[in-house]
Structure to design on (283 residues):
């Protein structure tokens, strides 16, 4: 027989309330202490070689045998090494890396971030026969604009100098704006979730050995554009998709105008520019 039924029920309810409060408090403390830490100390890049095969036709020097005067066009070949020779000894930016270090708090969850990002330090470029022009594109969680750079030696594939002040690439849209206006086709492997695409566009390539600071240009210069086709597919390593839609190659047939080694050698320029040999590089 329950001698004090009211007292027992009141205390039971009070116990229940205390228990619920304790659980909620413990949950709040746990949530307040919950945290995530994101650390990425490497720069993951997709690196492709950029090669040029351009021919500049320039005005020749008249010659005569006294009876017939003859004027032939001059021909100058421009490849990646020709561009690098034009900027030998000039100022560039060495590409390095640094780490962010910041904390955010959202709904009692503390997030610590330490992420790598590219840095740029003034340097002087010294050309050599092994140097090559490359395009660095971000992979995975990296978030930076693709960088046109030079790798001075295959022995040091993680050393780069930015050429952004000398060489620029843009996609030309129908309304005159850049970085837009592409036509894409492709296929999707639904079973494996893998995609491959083909992108058609008009690409513009501009080079100035004096960092676009002289108008009109006084050094080696060209401004060419043309039809480009670029292939993209998912990057798979060890059976895992590392990154979606990386470029596996690009070919652009271009034409335009320019000059070689100064305004006295104006030329009509035509040829091909390519991106090839993509590889995953960790810096």
């Amino acid at each position: 027989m329950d001698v004090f039924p009211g007292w027992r029920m009141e205390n039971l309810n009070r116990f229940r309330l205390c228990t619920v409060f304790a659980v909620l408090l413990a949950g709040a403390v746990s949530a307040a202490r919950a945290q995530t830490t994101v650390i990425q100390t490497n720069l993951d890049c997709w690196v492709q070689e950029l090669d040029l095969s351009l021919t500049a036709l320039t005005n020749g020097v008249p010659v005569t045998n006294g009876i017939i005067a003859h004027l032939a066009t001059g021909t100058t070949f421009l490849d990646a090494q020709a561009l690098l020779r034009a900027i030998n000894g000039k100022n560039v930016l060495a590409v390095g890396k640094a780490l962010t270090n910041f904390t955010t708090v959202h709904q009692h969850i503390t997030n610590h971030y330490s992420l790598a990002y590219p840095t740029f330090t003034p340097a002087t470029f010294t050309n050599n026969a092994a140097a090559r022009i490359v395009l660095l594109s971000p992979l995975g969680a990296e978030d930076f604009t693709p960088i046109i750079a030079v790798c001075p030696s295959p022995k040091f594939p993680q050393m780069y100098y930015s050429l952004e002040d000398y060489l620029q690439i843009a996609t030309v849209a129908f309304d005159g704006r850049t970085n837009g206006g592409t036509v894409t086709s492709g296929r999707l492997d639904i079973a494996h979730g893998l995609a491959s695409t083909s992108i058609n566009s008009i690409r513009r390539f501009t080079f100035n050995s004096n960092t676009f600071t002289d108008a009109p240009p006084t050094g080696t210069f060209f401004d060419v554009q043309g039809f480009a086709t670029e292939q993209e597919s998912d990057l798979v390593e060890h059976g895992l998709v590392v990154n979606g839609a990386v470029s596996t190659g690009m070919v652009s047939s271009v034409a335009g105008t320019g000059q070689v080694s100064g305004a006295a050698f104006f030329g009509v320029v035509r040829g091909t520019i390519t991106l090839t040999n993509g590889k995953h590089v960790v810096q």
Q: What stands out?
A: The two ends are 79 Å apart (CA to CA).
